[in-house]
Amino acid sequence: QVQLVESGGRLVQTGGSLRVSCAASGRTFSTYTMAWFRRAPGKEREFVAAIKWRDAGTYYADSVKGRFTISRDNAKNVVYLQMNNLKPEDTAVYYCAANRDGTDYWGLGTQVTVSS
């Protein structure tokens, strides 16, 4: 199993930048595909970005492509989401997720609020 704890969410102005982090427990972190999802008020949870464990390939939702960057530090068991040029529509609770062998693990989320 793996436990995930997100941090770094806060209030930021439109056009600003923010990096959120996800710290994972467990010695096999490097073998998990890691992802970020978000849930905006009144909306369904949506995919934001993912990074594979094998080749560190990255994937992004169209809405964040070119603005957000996902990365991982396997030595520190941390995955990051760097968010630039933030927009009010990026306001959401951001969740970290880990996947391996068809099993998903989720953190409790961190709130990101972008003021207009």
- Rg over C-alpha atoms, rounded to the nearest angstrom: 13 Å
Helix content bin? under 10%
* Number of strand segments: 11
Strand and helix order: EEEEEEEEEEE
Terminal Cα span: 40 Å
| SS field, number of helical segments | 0
Return residue spans where pLDDT drops below 50 for at least 5 consecutive residues. Answer: none
* Strand residues, percent: over 45%
Major sheet summary line:
7 strands, mixed
Overall body shape: globular
Mean pLDDT: 95
Structural class given helices, strands, pairing? mainly beta
Oligomeric state: single chain
Blueprint (SSEs and pairs):
Blueprint: E1 4-7, E2 11-13, E3 18-24, E4 33-39, E5 45-51, E6 58-60, E7 68-73, E8 78-83, E9 92-100, E10 103-106, E11 110-115
Parallel strand pairs: 2-11
Antiparallel strand pairs: 1-3, 3-8, 4-5, 4-9, 5-6, 7-8, 9-10, 9-11
Task: Offer a concise description of the structure.
The chain is mainly beta and 116 residues long. It is built from no helices and eleven strands.
